[in-house]
Design goal:
The structure holds 2 protein chains of 2 kinds. Chain A is mainly alpha-helical. Helix content of chain A is 68%, strand content 0%. In chain A, helix 15 (245-256) runs parallel beside helix 17 and helix 21 (353-364) crosses helix 22. Classes of the chains: A mainly alpha, B mainly alpha.
């Protein structure tokens, strides 16, 4: 048995624990005679992992070092049952206490992962140092990482680099990736792009998914390497097949949407599903798109809604916008304005201009009002107004009159640019003045700009300086810069007059 | 090439202040008694405004009294006020007449100022030849400023035949004894290789010496040398730094960094003490208000909060703390956290100077270069009134 199948390179807690905590049926044999170690080995070989795991327990309890190690290994790897970090630590400690040197690194890693308890870096460092005495390349990598981060040992980055390099030279893929990264950033060693590239290629060829993804991006964008689509695809394929989540999404999308490859919808969907199952929002959203549009799969709006929902609930803006639309139209889900508003709002907070428009239209249609939050409501309807919509403009006008100076500013911009109305500079100027009175700094800045350029008003540099200065008095940095630029073009007398006007304006004269 | 034009400065103001100073009351009494020297000294105090509220109008009255008694320094100083219209109605012709009168005293400085008026046509028709003659006279009396101005006339062929050898000879003495304008102009001649072999390295050295004395045009010129790698190793960072410094020094420095002033009697404010200052400031302690205001405006506590700083300085200034007045003036002058208002800014700096903050005088006069005489006069009048109110409180 190869001792370490668990080759995930990074020291990351496994997020998949919940999904894999399936309840396994207790094997019938367990109730009867305990299995011999030979029977356990045979069960393992034939893939009956739960049988093997159950069978190991009595031997481990009886003090069999190998059984303790194997049981710990299966618990740490989630083989033949769920992950059992605490159990793994317990049995591996027992095996190591009996001088099972090969168990040192695995035991150290249970301390590094720490789940469900807190990581114990000190204990991990001690175990790794012991394994290092046996020349373990893995131990050299993990201990190097501890030196790099200063965890459990005194931080020492150059020493970390040396240890990780040793591990890389012994062929440990994760270390090769780290060495590439350290050369590329100059961490613990001189920055050296050639070495970085060399190690990155080696790590990728040695199965490091992170190195493969790094190469995918570099070849695809032509950064560090000459742009090369074929190589990019090669490494993306390797990473996706190796289970790298982001790679699965990108790879799946490529084949589903025939992006640079010949369309292969089945392959595309398969990889998107893999990433989506691990919670990758982009993949979920793309699956939603595939079902909604019937791309590579039979159109199925309710499936589409289901996938979009998962992505939107993770806050993905584009999915939230589409899902809002589905709730509004009752497509794939029962029509539900409340839900539509909820998802449009998520998209709006993600800065989707389209979401603002939809929400604004809903307000105008009387579908809802958000009087408790006037600010977003005003922005939504103003977004509709900016398209030249008359109803929106009327709403803005009525609402402005109730004491919303910001709306006068937005209306001024509409009249100034003539969006859906005749250009009306007098009206724009009048609205800007009202907004400025209401302390809307943007309106003051607009006035400064209009007077400086003679835009719809008679050019008047003194008036421009006055407005920039008034806006600057609110600590508006853009206004300060504008004021100072204007002053450079003015005589001392003009500046004096502008300051006097600004002062009089603020005094209400 | 951005080498700036030769620096020309009309040096009418800036008479040295007497070393040993009688009290204000003593001066006022003696001035009222008709003593010309006391009238002149009192006028000087009022013009500079340290320990007394700056008031050009009142300074002009005492200069006039002394001038009428034939005091040449007073005639010269009053001329400067008339030429700019500070404290009096602007009247360059009357100013020119007074400059002529003062020059008759034979004092080199007054002869120089008259020469300068002829050169620039202030209150009279420009007469470069007359300017050259006067500069020559003052230079012969050992007035270095005139030697340099004379050199400029020779360099430009203004009022005299162009003679670069003569110009270089004239610049050399003052340059070597540390005159920044001479150093800069000599550097310029070396850059252009006019009448002398072009020598970038030596030119850079002269610019460096002048720049070290803060002459903005020299800072810019040295920056150009660094930007192009003329006579120095090319260094764009250094060039940028020098341009920034040049911007800070001259009157156009719109984007210059704002330098706040400290209270020389107190330790510099420290960010760690902000919390303690906040408590005390809320309780109305003006020193804490000033210290906290300084920390807020200087950015020592993160992004500067100028509006809050203005409020704090205002509270402390109202209680008469000079450093708070000075900083309130500086922020108001630059329009940070409040409306930019030169008159208000000048008023606060004048009050700070009157209350004894010596640095405020210098800061105010540098900033006042951007102001019109009418603004300065308005600020003087406003300061006079505020001072009376502050004393009443």
């Amino acid at each position: 048995m190869t001792p370490i199948i668990l080759t995930a390179p990074a020291l990351r807690p496994l997020a998949l624990t919940l999904a894999l905590l399936a309840v396994h049926p207790v094997s019938a044999q367990q109730a009867a005679e305990p299995l011999t170690m030979e029977q356990v080995a045979a069960a393992y070989k034939s893939g009956e992992f739960d049988t093997a795991r159950a069978g190991l327990l009595s031997h481990a309890e009886a003090g069999d070092m190998l059984a303790q190690y194997r049981l710990g290994y299966m618990m740490a790897s989630g083989i033949g049952g769920g992950f059992d970090r605490a159990g793994a630590t317990k049995w591996l400690e027992a095996a190591v206490a009996q001088e099972h040197r090969a168990g040192l690194v695995l035991l150290a890693r249970t301390y590094l992962t720490g789940s469900p308890e807190k990581p114990d870096y000190e204990r991990a460092a001690v175990l790794l140092a012991m394994a290092l005495e046996d020349g373990s390349a893995e131990a050299s990598f993990y201990l190097g990482q501890l030196y790099r981060m200063g965890r459990g040992v005194e931080g020492d980055v150059p020493r970390a680099f040396k240890m990780i390099l040793t591990s890389a030279e012994a062929g440990f893929a994760a270390a090769q990736f780290s060495v590439a990264e350290m050369y590329s950033k100059g961490v613990g060693t001189e920055k050296d792009d050639d070495q970085a590239k060399r190690w990155m290629l080696q790590a990728a060829d040695n199965g490091s998914n992170r190195a493969q993804m790094s190469l995918y991006f570099n070849y695809a964008r032509g950064t560090g390497f000459a742009q090369d689509d074929a190589r990019a695809l090669k490494y993306l394929t390797l990473a996706a097949e190796g289970g790298h989540t982001l790679a699965e999404r990108i790879y799946g999308s490529k084949y589903l949407f025939a992006d640079g490859v010949e369309a292969d919808p089945d392959k595309g969907l398969e990889f998107l599903r893999r990433a989506a199952a691990k919670g990758e929002a982009g993949a979920q959203s793309n699956l939603g798109y595939a079902y909604a549009t019937g791309t590579g799969v039979e159109e199925d709006q309710s499936q589409a809604a289901k996938w979009y929902q998962q992505a939107a609930d993770q806050g993905l803006t584009r999915a939230a916008l589409v899902l809002g639309g589905m709730y509004q139209a009752g497509r794939g889900v029962a029509a539900d304005t409340e839900q539509a508003i909820k998802y449009y709002n998520i998209a709006y907070l993600g800065r989707s201009p389209e979401a603002a428009l939809r929400l604004g239209q809903l307000v105008l249609d009387g579908a809802f009002s958000r009087d408790a939050e006037p600010e977003p409501t005003i922005n939504w309807v103003s977004a509709v107004g900016d398209t030249g919509d008359t109803a929106a403009r009327n709403w803005m006008m009525a609402r402005a009159a109730t004491g919303e100076p910001y709306l006068y500013y937005r209306l001024a911009l509409i009249y100034r640019a003539g969006i859906g109305v005749e250009v009306d500079h007098d009206k724009a100027n009048g609205h800007l003045l009202i907004a400025a009175k209401g302390n809307i700094e943007a309106a003051m800045l607009q006035l400064a700009e209009d007077y400086a350029a003679g835009n719809g008003v008679e050019q008047d540099i003194i008036e421009a300086h006055k407005w920039a200065n008034v806006a600057a008095s609110f600590d508006n940095e853009e206004a300060m810069a504008r004021r100072d630029v204007l002053a450079d073009l003015m005589t001392a007398d003009q500046v004096a007059e502008a300051q006097a006007r600004a002062k009089a304006y603020l005094k209400g004269e | 090439m951005r080498i700036a034009a030769i620096a020309l400065a009309l040096l009418l103001a800036g008479a040295p202040v007497a070393a040993q100073q009688p009290s204000l009351a003593q001066l006022q009494q003696a001035a009222a008694g008709g003593q010309a020297e006391a009238q002149f000294q009192l006028a000087e105090r009022l013009r500079i405004g340290t320990g007394v509220v700056q008031n050009y109008a009142r300074a002009a009255e005492f200069y006039l009294a002394a001038a009428n008694q034939g005091e040449a320094r007073a005639q010269n100083a009053l001329a400067a006020l008339l030429i700019r219209g500070l404290g009096v109605a602007q009247d360059p012709e009357a100013g020119f007449a007074l400059l002529s009168l003062a020059a008759e005293s034979g004092a080199a400085k007054h002869i120089h100022d008259l020469g300068s008026a002829y050169q620039q046509g202030i209150g009279t028709t420009p007469d470069p030849a007359q300017a050259v003659a006067l500069y020559q006279r003052a230079s012969d009396l050992g007035w270095q400023e005139s030697t340099v101005s004379l050199a400029v006339m020779y360099q430009n062929g203004e009022g005299v035949a162009r003679d670069l050898t003569k110009a270089i000879a004239l610049y050399t003495g003052p340059a070597e004894s540390g005159h920044p304008r001479a150093q800069n102009n000599l550097g310029l001649i070396l850059v252009r290789g006019e009448g002398v072999e072009q020598d970038y390295a030596l030119a850079a050295e002269w610019f460096r010496k002048a720049a070290a004395q803060g002459l903005p045009v020299a800072l810019t010129n040295l920056g150009v040398m660094y930007e192009n790698g003329f006579g120095v190793a090319r260094d764009e960072e250094e060039a940028k730094r020098l341009y920034r410094l040049a911007g800070q020094g001259d009157a156009q420095g719109g984007e210059a960094e704002i330098a706040l002033v400290l209270d020389p009697r107190l330790n510099a404010p420290r960010a760690e003490e902000a919390k303690a200052h906040l408590m005390a400031a809320n309780a109305g302690d003006p020193v804490a208000q000033y210290l906290l205001g300084y920390l807020m405006a200087s950015g020592a506590l993160g992004k500067p909060d100028n509006r809050m700083a203005i409020q704090l300085f205002q509270a402390a200034a109202d209680k008469g703390l000079p450093a708070a007045m000075a900083n309130l003036g500086i922020l108001t002058f630059h329009g940070r956290g409040t409306l930019q208002d030169f008159v208000e800014g000048h008023r606060w700096l004048t009050l700070a100077a009157a209350a004894g903050h010596s640095q405020a005088t210098e800061v105010r006069d540098r900033l006042a270069e951007k102001m019109t005489p009418a603004q300065i006069n308005a600020a003087n009048a406003a300061a006079e009134q505020s001072w009376a109110e502050l004393r009443a409180n």
